Amino acid sequence: MKIKREHQRMALLLTLVFFILLGIVVERNRAPEEKDVPPQKVTSFPIDLNSASIEDLMSIPGIGPVKAQRIVEYRESHGRFSTVEELTNVSGIGEKTLEKISKYVIVEGVEQPSRNEVTKLNVNTASLEELKTLPYIGEVKARAIIEYREEHGPFSSPEDLLNVPGIGEKTLEKIRGKITF
Question: b or e along 84-122 (b: 16 or more beta carbons within 10 Å of the residue's beta carbon)?
Fold first, then answer.
């Protein structure tokens, strides 16, 4: 019995299709650890802001590559974080974002105040480093506050800070609930 050449080709084609489909099914059913997937880094929380990499920071819900890069750049240009609240000095991180991410981050070596605990900074006695922990107050504005109070005496109200070069209404509103006299 001779099989026609046409039937041989069809049988060969069907066999080839069968093995291709079998390969696809086997590959789909393969266990995930068998696949060629690079191992993912597992980040444990809370993360120390002073040693976190961009990748570590990106593992925090709500922090993408841009904010993670800004946090690292802030740390590199301003030095180590002294409090978690100092994150509000980073562009793009406000009070709402801080509230969402504060349970995921810490500053190692610094006692962490309770989020419910309100501690106000006395601008008449605060050091340069303490003033820099206020939102949107960097080294330049902190120095300006100290120079102004040394030249004009103690501040008596939040509005007195408007006389300090570099401090306007927006900055004052961001720090108003965090300062005392």
Answer: bbbbbbbeebeeebbeebeebbbbeeeeeeeeeeeeebe
30 vs 34: CA distance, rounded Å: 7
**Tokens standing for 14?**
């069907």
Euclidean distance between CA atoms 117 and 20, whole angstroms:
65
What pLDDT score does 117 carry? 47
30 vs 157, more confident: 157
In the chain, alpha helices (H): 5-29, 54-58, 65-78, 95-101, 128-131, 139-152, 169-175
Is the whole model's pTM more than 0.85, yes or no?
no
Q: Running DSSP on this structure, what letter comes out for residue 141?
A: H
Contact (Cβ atoms closer than 8 angstroms) between residue 61 and residue 104 = yes
Contact 54, 69 (CB under 8 A): yes
**pLDDT tens for each residue of 29-57:** 876 655 555 555 566 889 999 999 999 99
CB 65 within 8 A of CB 122: no
User: β-strand 179-180 against 47-48: which pairing, if any?
Assistant: unpaired
